[in-house]
Amino acid sequence: MLVLAVTGVGMTMIAPGPARRLFVDLHTAREYALPVKLLYALGSLGFLVQGVTGVLMWWRPRPGR
Question: 44, 5 in Cβ contact below 8 A?
Fold first, then answer.
C-alpha cells in the first residue's frame, strides 16, 4: 500500500520524463510478474478494507454519548 500511495503522489509531482516513467511503471506494475501483480491487488484491497472499516467505525453509535 505504501508503494502505491507514494508512486501515486510522485506521478503528480514529477514532470514528464524518465523519473515519471519509473513512477508509472511502479504504480501500475505493468512490467512485473504475476506474483507482484497479486501483491499489488492485495495492497489495493487493503485500501478498500480500510475505507469500509473506517466508515463502519464512524457510523456505529458509541455507548455513553
Answer: no
The C-alpha atoms of residue 46 and residue 38 are separated, in whole angstroms, by 12
Enter the DSSP assignment of 50.
Answer: H
> For the segment 23-62, what is each residue's pLDDT rounded down to a tens digit?
998 888 888 999 999 998 998 899 899 999 999 998 888 7
Q: How far apart are CA 25 and CA 16, in angstroms?
A: 13
- Please tell me the pTM assigned to this model: 0.65
Residues 43/4, Cβ–Cβ less than 8 Å: yes
The three cell numbers locating residue 63: 455507548
Three cell numbers at 22? 519509473
Distance CA 29, CA 16 (A): 18
